[in-house]
């Protein structure tokens, strides 16, 4: 089977973690912020960012991190639904993973701390070390969504 260009997303209404892997190699990663209150305009901004990555990197699969317990907020539900519509329009497959599934796929256990999980990711992807060091200095988790997105891009390969 040929290697795919995979877009990993850890979605949020204020911050989205985004990672792109091609041929199992991590080629892009970031946290994209979307300040302000939820609105249709904000939803369109988020979708434009995702659509831009789909086009720029010829994405063939999207892997989305979902919380273990799905939030009931209208905004989050709209965002997930809109990502699904976007992928349908582009003929892209999509996989959804809970945080527990990501932990199991990456570390073999769901009982791994956030810090240990990130350290494990950085060992596989040393290019993420600067973000890890910044995350350790932050009082509030900022880069964690990016690390979750990186995990999403790796799930297809970890499960084989």
Polypeptide structure, described:
- The protein is an alpha/beta fold and 160 residues long.
- The chain has one domain: Nucleotidyltransferase, domain 5 (2-Layer Sandwich), CATH 3.30.420.
- It is built from six helices and five strands; from the N terminus they run βββαβαβαααα.
- A five-stranded mixed beta sheet has the order 3-2-1-4-5, sandwiched between helices.
- β1 and β2 form a beta hairpin.
- α1 packs parallel to α2 (74-89) and α3 (99-107) packs across α6 (144-158).
- The radius of gyration is 15 Å and the shape is globular.
- The mean pLDDT is 90.
Overall number of domains: 1
Mean pLDDT: 90
Assembly classification: single chain
The CATH class, by name, is: Alpha Beta
Uncertain segments are: none
Per CATH, the superfamily is: Ribonuclease H-like superfamily/Ribonuclease H
Quote the distance from N terminus to C terminus.
Answer: 12 Å
Overall morphology? globular
Major β-sheet annotation: 5 strands, mixed
């Amino acid at each position: 089977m040929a290697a795919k260009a995979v877009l990993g997303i850890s979605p949020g209404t204020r911050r989205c973690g985004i990672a792109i892997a091609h041929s199992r190699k991590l080629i892009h990663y970031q946290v994209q912020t979307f300040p302000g209150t939820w609105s249709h305009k904000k939803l369109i901004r988020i979708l434009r960012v995702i659509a831009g990555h789909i086009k720029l990197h010829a994405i063939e699969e999207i892997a989305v991190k979902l919380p273990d317990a799905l939030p009931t907020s209208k905004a989050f539900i709209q965002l997930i639904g809109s990502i699904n519509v976007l992928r349908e329009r582009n003929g892209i497959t999509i996989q959804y993973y809970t945080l527990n599934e990501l932990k199991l796929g990456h570390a073999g256990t769901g009982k791994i701390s956030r810090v240990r999980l990130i350290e494990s990711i950085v060992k596989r992807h040393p290019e993420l070390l600067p973000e890890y060091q910044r995350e350790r200095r932050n009082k509030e988790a900022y880069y964690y969504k990016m690390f979750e997105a990186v995990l999403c891009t790796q799930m297809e390969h970890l499960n084989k």
